[in-house]
Each structure stands twice: as C-alpha cells, then as structure tokens.
Amino acid sequence: MHIPDGYLSPITYIPSYAVAVPLFAYGLKKLKQELSEETLPFIATLTALSFLVMMINIPIPGGTSGHAIGAAAIAILFDPWISFICLSLVLLIQSLIFGDGGITAWAVNSISMGFVASFSAYYSYKFLKRFNKGIALFISGWVSIVTASFVIALFLGIQPIVAHDSEGKPLFFPFDLSITIPALVFSHMVYFGVVEGIYTVLVVKFVEKLKLSLTKGVQNEA
Amino acid sequence: MKLRYLLIPILILLVLIPVGLLTENPAWGEWDLSYFEKVLGFVPEGMEKGKEIVKPVIPDYSLGDKNPLISYYLSAILGIVMIFGIFWGMKVFLKNER
User: Fold this and answer.
1) B28 by DSSP, 3-state: which?
2) A1 in a domain, yes or no?
C-alpha cells in the first residue's frame, strides 16, 4: 500500500502536502502533550511494532502480497492524532532509509495509512465497544486498513484522469478506479483486514494488561 | 521494572519477520517499471522520470551482497533504534523547553 515516487502527479501530491502539513502540526502538538516518562515507552514500542509488522509481507493468491499496518492499536490505546503521527514517522523512515514508499507520496501515504486508518479505527471502536470488546477491537482493526486501502485506491485511480497527455496516454499511474478499487480494497477486506484485526486484538489486550499491572504495582508500593 | 515486558511483542515480531522474505510477490501496484512496459507497451513518462528522487540508504531492506536474512534483521533493528531514538530525542527536547 506504500505508493512509490513517480506514481502520483504533482497536481495530486502538492495539494496533498498542503492538507497534510497542518494535520502534522496539530498531531505533533497532541503528541507533545501526551509524551511523558510513563507514555514514552508505550508509544515508542507501538510505533516500532508498526514498523515491524509492515515488514511481514504475506503473499496472497493473484501474485501480490501485503501486510498489516498497526495504526488501529495506537489509535485505540492512545489517540488517533498520536497514531497518525506515529504512522507518519514510520512511513518517513521507510521512505528515506529503505525506499519503501515515495517521498513525494509521503503525504498521501500518511493521510491514508496514518490519518484515515487511525480515525476510522478510533470511531469504529468507540461505537462498537458497548457490544463486545474483543469483537469491537477486531472490527476496528479491519475497518482501519480497509478504509486506508480505499483512500490509496482513490489516489491511484484518479491519476489517469488528472494526468494524461494530449492523446490520453497516462503520465503517471495508469490504471483507473475500476481497477484500483476492486484490487486494493478487496484484498484488504479478505486478507490483510483479518491480519490487522487479529493484531489489534492481541496488541491492545496485551498493552492494557501491562498498563493495569503497572498502575497496580504503583498502588501497592504506596 | 515491568516495562521490560514491552520487549515481548517486539521480540515476537522480530521472530516473525523472516516470513516477510518468503514471498517474491510485490504489493499490488508496487511493481517494477518493466511490468508497466509489459502490460501497457510503454512506461508512463512521469513514472520513468519520477522514480527515486531521493536515493534510499538501504533500498528494499537489502544491504547489497549480504545475506538477505541478515540484511532484513539489520534493517529491522536500525528501524527500531531510529524510532526509539526519535521519541527519546523529542522527550529530551520537550523537557528543555518546559
């Protein structure tokens, strides 16, 4: 789901930066408020987990592969703004150091895998947790990556419409929405959404247990 | 300190990351430019020009002739160290600011 350089036209990525920069600024402000001696190890660990889980490429039928992204867990445990910043940081490192995802596409990748995934997970969980917590976590993870894949499909699929030469030849990513949406969204609904759902359940439950035992430890000492 | 338990999920994922090397399949859309040449008969102009504006330090998590598994692990560890370093740096910076 990491869009490389050369896939998006400047008419797409320049406005995407204009949208993303104020979001980054606000997210960083939120992170500043939240970052403390107690929260730092958790936030840093969850960010590292997101980086690692994205390295675990899972092959699927049809000759492609994909992975979970780990945004939902951070959004649910902390705050969707913080999750957005954490994912954007991971995407920046992946782009600059490992060439995974383009630097021109960083804003679009951050908006989809960071912003959209985090907020869709956060609100799904907020709505669903009253029914059953485990199921709510799973569905929120699933929703987060499916909505992110939809946004990526949109950005890729509009390229042949917004950027072609006088003969209609595409200048950037050549396949339109009728191809990108089924290919990307379907594979995330069936495969990677399930992986993200399981990851979200396991990570959120683990961190909550650990946090609880930490606060209990403090109370016992007092 | 119980915080060391946070290492458990990191270690679990570190054990699992070789799975990511098992497949040669790229993610959907993330093909080599030769794929577009094959399917379309040409490579879109902007894609040809636009690739690798910035040269990555360790392209595709691969350190040249090093064993792919070792490269992948070194990349994973470098990523973890960078992430913790950046958050720690932010905390120090914030402390000084306050």
Assistant:
1) coil
2) no
* A5: in domain: no
CATH number at residue A84: 1.10.1760.20
State the nearest Cα–Cα gap between A110 and chain B, in angstroms.
16
Q: Residue A205: inside a domain, yes or no? A: yes
pTM of the predicted model as reported, rounded to 2 decimal places: 0.94
Domain count, chain A: 1
pLDDT at residue B25 is higher than 90 = no
- Secondary structure letter of residue A158 according to DSSP: T
Indicate whether A22 belongs to any domain: yes
Residue B37 has pLDDT above 50, yes or no: yes
In B, residues 8-47, which contact A (CB 8 Å cutoff)? 8-10, 13-14, 16-17, 19-23, 25-30, 36, 40, 42, 44-47
Quote the tokens at residue B89. 């740096």
Task: Report which residue type is found at A21.
Answer: V
Phi/psi of residue A65, each to 5°?
Answer: -150, 175
**CA B21 to the chain's CA centroid:** 12
